[in-house]
Amino acid sequence: MSEQRNPDMQSAMVCAGGFPGFCVSAPAKINAGLKVTGVRPDGYHELVTVMVPVSLYDRLEFWSCGGGVNLECSGNPVPCGEENLVCRAAHAFFERSGIKGGVKIRLEKKIPVAAGLGGGSSDAAATLSALNRIFENPLDQVALHKAALGLGADVPFFLRQGPCIARGIGEVLEPLEDWPDMWYVIVTPPVEVSTAWVYSNLKISLTSDKLAANMAQFKMTPFEVAGFLTNDLEAVTAARFPVIIRIKELLCDAGAEGALMSGSGPSVYGIFKTETKAREAKAGLMPMLSGEVFVVSEALGI
Ligand code: ATP
Known about the structure:
alpha+beta, 2 domains
């Protein structure tokens, strides 16, 4: 079990050794609402979702070097070769910028993998941003967004740093400036969920874009936010892993204003008004749960 407090996070900070080494904190996200609104001819699902970056971070360190992309990984197991999104992002950066440089990267993986918390996408966005800074901004914001979208639908969200409504396949982003201060207890049960499997088992009943209309009113209290929590993917994942419903019940019994599965799962979070309430809930829940439990709040961007 581990947890993250809410450090005064800077998304990219110069390492103690100074330029050209960079340390970057890459936050997880939760989906505070997710509605699938259609399927495109190419098979991608269109959706409306509210995404909030939270204070559970992977850590990445970068050093520019002669040539090639060299990645070392520690922490939660993750593929460390060319299939890692960090390597893919680094190659995308060098291709799009035309820079002939190279980079050595260390990834300390703290965000649970394939857990609905967006860790891979966040690492990819952090890599694009860090390399752009190290090599003195050869890509403008439009080019960075395009590179991010080429790596995954959630990657552009992590470039923005802040709660957003995402539409399209996730790439059309509308910032939510007035997201309320809340605390979240995230529970990640020890089951593996494939995002592709969840979408392929989703029976789409096309719904209107009401979620976004409602979410746009988010000058709300945590209690009101809790009233809007909904995730079309939850029923699919929970049918296979009933522990998800059990965790939601436990979170609500422990005082959460509301609880929801994040993304395609299996992570589930509860909303709490204060840090004290969230930590008390975590302490009460730990003996009843296996897996990881984190107390987090909104991640602060630069
Ligand atoms: P998604 O919904 O995009 O699948 P997720 O949060 O559920 O997101 P991730 O932790 O991003 O899941 O991992 C998804 C897959 O991506 C995993 O199968 C993992 O092996 C692969 N992957 C590649 N690079 C990374 C990375 N840097 N961190 C985490 N996973 C990675």
